[in-house]
Predict the structure.
Amino acid sequence: MKTSTWIKIMLVVIVICGLYLVFNQSKEDMAVDKVTDETFQYEVLESPIPVIVIFCSDELWNRRSVPWSLKKPVPVILAIREIMKEEQYKGKVKFWRYTVPDGSYNQATESFDKDSLCKELNIKWLPTVIMFKNGSIIKKLEGGGCTVEESKRKITQELRNLLE
């Protein structure tokens, strides 16, 4: 094949990948605001409504379900995105994301104790979902080993309990 044909094929592939990424961006991804060490007290602990905080890395959060990717999205994150998309809890529960900084994991202690908030909340695994109500931890869900459906069912049940 001629070089120009290969260039055209590459451009088509790039355009298709770009379109896929643009249209794969959903509004619920943007709806999860980031909470920081500085805003955690006010936004989470002092919130008048229940709060769910997803502790994860940017890499875990940004994984996409793409056919050529070996890195699959984490079921619990996908479950939370689905729950938010349904908007059943809009105005009743606030969803936040805390990005655990790279290098926070301490191999010696097998925990994220290099990050003050993770250390304080005893985060041992990413992702970890913590549900807060009136400044207290109500439930902590660690890891993402089950399916999206199981995660969604578990989180939905906990949300119902949280709102009772």
Remarks:
- The first strand starts at residue 33 and ends at 34.
- Residues 3-24 form the longest helix (22 residues).
- The chain has two domains: 1-25, 32-163.
